[in-house]
Amino acid sequence: MNSAPNLSRWGNRLLAALPRETLAMLERDLTQVSLSQGVVCFDVGDPIDRVYFPSTGMISLLVATKNGDVVEAGAIGRGGAAGLQSALGERRSYTRATIQIPGIFTTISAVDFRRAASNNGPIRDLASRYTEVLWAETQQTAACNAIHDGSQRLCRWLLQSADCIGSDHLPLTQEYLADMLGLRRTTVTLLAQELQERGAIRYSRGKIMILDRKALEACACECYEATKDENLSLKTGVTLIKDSTLVARPGLTGATDADVLFSFARQ
Amino acid sequence: MPMYYFHLRDNKTLSDVDGTEFVDASEARSHAIGVARELIFNRNGMLDRDWSRWRMSVNDEDENEVFSFRMVDFAADSSVK
């Protein structure tokens, strides 16, 4: 647990989880950029030419239909990375990865990342395990979109996004939220009014502030906890899906400190 | 195009503060029904009051009601638990 300063340096838990010497090797090629909302990291079918480790912002993996509708299939914050699979070989993107919440992103070119990964167990291990986690999260999202009501999904989304960026101030318009949740904007406005009435959030055009996490957690569906715990499964490297549900592992719930997340790579 | 506002009313009002533009009231009605169905999906009500209490009130820019309907009218044909 001696690499905690790495989290403060790059602000990303995956990078913080790498052994010191591996990170030191990567750092030669890492750069930090500020990216604004709507920037497309890679579109469907594009070669993945760069890896993005969010430090303060969030990336959405979007599925777009031919008539222009989009819905979110996954979200990546400081506990993840977009394009990490390029460590394992040249890859193309299955989804549109776009900046959802602007901020600072630590990036490396896919070529440099692959070169670093070629003889490095921890990077390759991280890439393959994190790919499994993303896969599990998107399965949970698919089930959630089909089963849970709009309010539950909105609450889950707000909590997950706040966790992703480490802030309760979310710079998001109703329009964007509606797209992410596959709901009409009016529906999201009314659901947000309800949450505001309950004192859980405060929102104005383009900004949402979480006032009462407990109230939001009470309204959110089980998928919030399930995907949160999912991150922890990386630590033990045990099977991600148990009885086709993603359940918390006894003894690990509540262990959300950045230092324990992904610490397998240092062991 | 005129703006329409889709409020939910019980003894309280949940206001559609943003509003949406539509060509005419007929398009606004289709939208209102779509919103009602999304709200009702797998839910019994809002703010702990069931749908029988709530009404969707669609207003114009001057806050005059253009039309309204009872939410419960759309609860029957969706998968309400």
What report would you give on this structure?
The complex is a heterodimer of chains A (267) and B (81). With 267 residues, chain A is of the alpha+beta class. In chain A, 43% of the residues lie in helices and 19% in strands. Chain A is built from ten helices and ten strands. Chain A has helices at 4-10, 13-17, 20-27, 110-118, 121-147, 150-165, 174-181, 185-197, 213-219, 223-236, and strands at 31-35, 40-42, 50-54, 58-64, 70-76, 96-101, 103-109, 169-170, 201-204, 207-210. In chain A, the strands form three sheets. In chain A, strands 2-6-4-5 form a four-stranded antiparallel sheet. In chain A, helix 5 runs antiparallel to helix 10. The longest helix of chain A is centred in the middle third of the chain and has 27 residues, at 121-147. Chain A is globular and about 55 Å long. Mean pLDDT of chain A is 82; it is low at 1-6 and 235-267. With 81 residues, chain B is α+β, with helices and mostly antiparallel strands. Chain B is built from one helix and seven strands, in the order E-E-E-H-E-E-E-E. In chain B, strands 1, 2, 3, 6 and 7 form a five-stranded antiparallel sheet that branches. In chain B, a hairpin with a 3-residue loop joins strand 1 and strand 2. Chain B is globular, with a radius of gyration of 12 Å. Chain B starts with a strand and ends in an 11-residue tail after the last strand.
